[in-house]
Amino acid sequence: MCLVLLLFVVCVSVTQTVFAQTPTSANCTELYLEQQIDHFNFAPVSVPNHPSTFLQRYFVCDQFVDKSSQEDTPIFFYFGNEDDVTLYVNHTGLMWENAPAFKALLVFGEHRYYGKSQPFEPGTPNCMNWLTSEQAMADDAYIIRHVKKKYNLEDSRVVGFGGSYGGMLGTYFKRHYPATIDGLIAGSAPIWSFADLSPPYDYYAFNNIIADDASSPGGCSDACKNNYITVQKRIFTLMESETGRALMKKQLRLCDKLTKASQAEDVIAWTQNAWSYMAMGDYPYPSGYIIHNYGLLPAYPVRVACKPLSAPHLQVGSDEQLLEALHGAMNVFYNYTHEKACFPLVDSTVSAKMGHHPHHMLKRGADMDQKCTGDWGYQWCTEMVMPSNQGGSKDMFLPPSVFNFTAMTEGCKQQWNVAPRQSWSSVALASKDVSKLENVVFSNGGLDPWRAGGVVQNISSSVHALVIPSGAHHIDLMFSTPQDPPDVIQAREFEVQKMWEWVSKDDHSK
What is the 3-state composition of the chain as percent helix, strand, coil, each rounded to the nearest 5? Predict the structure, then answer.
């Protein structure tokens, strides 16, 4: 759905609050709810001498509720993602800025195994078995019920929010618990990034969008994409000799000596990971969201990273110049603190086999299945099997690689001691047929590579799809800024109108 069409449907006054100081989790109350580790088995968990429950964290922000009359108080509920929930409390401006007008109660649920919602101590055998979206949905259902009782809001309407995996989780929740929430804003929710769908998912699409971001469609010079392809080819050649490896270490400012030709894959995967994250976080303002607030990326980081790779002299330049330009691009992402003198490489032995989607290189090491804390790699190795190809005619990544489920399975067994189920998500969570959903807005950023698996066309009169051409990863859920392009502002206006419709007592649809 083209955003200009919103001009014909937005017909209510949108009143949002601009805060003098951005609110954070410090403006909320941190609470805990005792949850079953296994909601779907009445027997004790199969971990000796361990309780069957854990404490799940959630935040409640009630300063906008009209305490004198709570009859019409809606609940805004955020479906926590694969991180500490405070990241989402501190960034989901769409909820905060509209809560005063709605007099809404804000609730942010933390996903089990992340942040402080830890079912097991590190080192507990078989501790990862209950890290599933099904268990997380049941947690959220209990939180919503508990909050309604605790705050005497049994008849209140509930609007759900979620970005990325949180948006996927919210969509699955809307399907499995349709009577619990009345509407959902699902930002950048790639529910169709899976195998065995009809029509099928394009395995090249994720990387094609990254390549568009790093060329003229994304506001960069086409020389950036072309020179990046060239430098990847040169890396494979240079890594064949000791002299070439020494040059690589020097020009790219790598911390460790490169000792063998096969490390070319490590270097290439390291650079590709950066492009993936910068494309997701290609916001029009400086932001630390995509790097978990460990630092700050510049506005439009892909464009900034492309500048050194777009220099005219690189077309006839030397290996030294090409590598120096690549270092300049990588410095944008990996040196976000501006304090690193050199860069460590992450061993890509496993991740190269599994694809280079973001997150797959974040946590690697022995006995990962014994750490007992949440990790997207584990979720990807069980339910979230999102296939990816590279090296097609439209992307910029080398070497050409086709998704290999057998190789992925071996990598997952090695890393997590589990085998993925490739068809599970499309069978149990969300197939291509979502026509029975009601009251959902799917939003997609035009610059966001996860748009490849998103819902980009309207499904029905109550399930809408927005494509925000200048938007990055669920930018519409973020706090408003003066740098927001008009299409981002229009998307939020449309979403707020739908929120008003969903909380209206005259609207009995769910």
Answer: 40, 10, 50
> What's 401's DSSP letter?
B
List alpha helices for 343-429, DSSP H: 351-354, 376-380, 405-416, 424
CA–CA dist 6, 28 (Å, integer): 34
Integer angstrom CA distances of residue 97 from 14, 63, 479, 492: 11, 13, 7, 11
Spatial distance between the Cα atoms of 221 and 244, rounded to a whole number of angstroms? 28
Q: Which residues pair with 30 in a beta bridge?
A: 59
Collapsing DSSP to helix, strand or coil, 107 comes out as strand
> Strand order of the sheet with strand 29-36?
29-36, 53-61, 105-109, 75-79, 158-163, 183-187, 440-445, 463-468
> What six digits make up the tokens of 485?
């392009």
The residue annotated as part of the active site, out of 117, 133, 156, 164, is 164
Per the residue annotation, which of 282, 473, 484, 487 is the catalytic one?
473
Triad 182, 130, 206: Cα angle to 5°:
65
Total residues belonging to the chain: 510
Q: Is the pLDDT of residue 365 over 80?
A: no
Q: For residue 169, count CB atoms less than 10 angstroms from its CB and return exposed for 0-12, middle for 13-18, buried for 19 or more.
A: buried
The model's pTM:
0.93
Answer yes or no: are the C-beta atoms of 203 and 389 closer than 8 Å. yes
Q: Are 32 and 142 in contact (CB under 8 A)?
A: no
- Amino acid (1-letter code) at residue 286: P
Residue 448 annotated to the active site: yes
Q: Which residue has the tokens 């090296």?
A: 391
Specify whether the CB–CB gap between 363 and 379 falls below 8 A.
no
DSSP 296-353: -BPSSHHHHHHHHHT-GGGGG--HHHHHHHHHHHHHHHHTTTS--SSBPPPP-TTHHH
- Give residue 355's pLDDT: 43
How many other CB atoms sit within 10 Å of the CB of residue 298?
Answer: 15
Report residue 329 as tokens: 């691009």
Catalytic pick among 83, 266, 369, 448: 448
Phi, psi of 324 (to 5 degrees): -65, -40
Three-class SS of residue 493? helix
Q: Where are the alpha helices (DSSP H) in 42-132?
A: 86-89, 93-102
C-alpha 343/C-alpha 440 separation (Å) is: 43
Tell me the pLDDT tens digit for each residue of 220-239: 999 999 999 999 999 999 99
| 464 noted as active-site residue | no
**Distance between CA atoms of residues 475 and 483, nearest Å:** 12
- What digits encode the pLDDT tens for the residues 32-67? 999 999 999 999 898 888 999 999 999 999 999 998
In tens, the pLDDT along 254-307 reads 999 999 999 999 999 999 999 999 999 999 999 999 998 899 999 999 999 999
The first and second tokens of residue 482, run together, are 């003066």
Is 462 noted as a catalytic residue in this protein? no
The token pair at 448 is 């966001």
